[in-house]
Amino acid sequence: MKKKIVKAPPIKIKKFPQKAPKAYEDLKFLNSPEARSIRILSEYEEPLLRFRKLKIDHTIVFFGSARIKNKINAVKDLKMVKGIVKNDRMGKHLLHSAEMDLEMSKYYEATVELSKRLTEWSMALKYDSKFVVCSGGGPGIMEAANKGAKQAGGLSMGLNISLPFEQFPNPYISHALNFEFHYFFMRKFWFAYPAKALIIMPGGFGTLDELMEILTLVQTKKLHKKILIVIFGKEYWNKIINFDMLAEMNMISKKDLSLMKFVETVDEAYNYLTKKLPVSVYGNTVKENKNSSA
Questions:
Q1: Do 118 and 59 contact (CB within 8 A), yes or no?
Q2: What angle do CA 66, 115, 123 make, to 5 degrees?
Q3: CA dist., res. 283 & res. 294, Å (int)
Q4: What pLDDT sits at residue 280?
Q5: What is the pLDDT of the chain when averaged over all its residues?
Q6: What is the pLDDT of residues 112-126, one digit of tens each?
Q7: Which DSSP string corresponds to 155-209?
Q8: Phi and psi (nearest 5°) for 197?
Q9: Alpha carbon of 49 to those of 35, 128, 129, 176, 281: distances in Å?
């Protein structure tokens, strides 16, 4: 008689759930309103890490319009407009706009030259921590500032911001100093914190916002450092803001007018900054490398 073979019951393997993602790897959480404080802190700590690695303590910040074109493009656009416009209301508007773009392009070219010269001067200083040109990272005056620094062979910083209408970083920013911010106030912090000089080129709402914010911080002594404010283009700015009238109407004091320096030329801006910056930052007159041509 054959023995009946009894099969053992199948072993039930208990299935455990997959591991949950770590909180700092959970993108859904990191992009949630609850993690806003973490995102804000990230926009402080991550730039700070890069600055420390590159020994960046001092910046020269350029502000100005994103709409200002370089001279070559402005000339090209004016020539194109003259070839297609009709002598009507719209045609006259387009012609005037193109002519104005060409007129304002002088500030693009001045920014490139000033940024280049300041970078060459900074690179020749006998200090480990030098002055690095910084801009908002976009087109126009921002592009011109980064372009000049790159032409000089120096570092070129761009603090870009994510906008509904995309602002892409210009091609003249150093790879290690190309930043993209979500929070305007964190971007503003990094404009102000390492800045030892601001150069205000012609611009619109954004430029006015940055200028007035820094002027207020300096006026109210909320910045515990010396910061030089250079306003470039008397012809433009005298039409936009009457600072003397603010003092005349007792909205600011007469001495507040000394918080800024108006200049009209690249030479004037360069001479003022290279004379004042070493004293305000290093506490002495400029020291340059003897083998430098800058």
A1: no
A2: 145
A3: 21
A4: 86
A5: 91
A6: 999 999 999 999 998
A7: -EEEEEE--SS--PPPTTS-GGGEEEES-HHHHHHHHHSSEEEEEE-S--HHHHH
A8: -155, 145
A9: 21, 17, 15, 11, 22
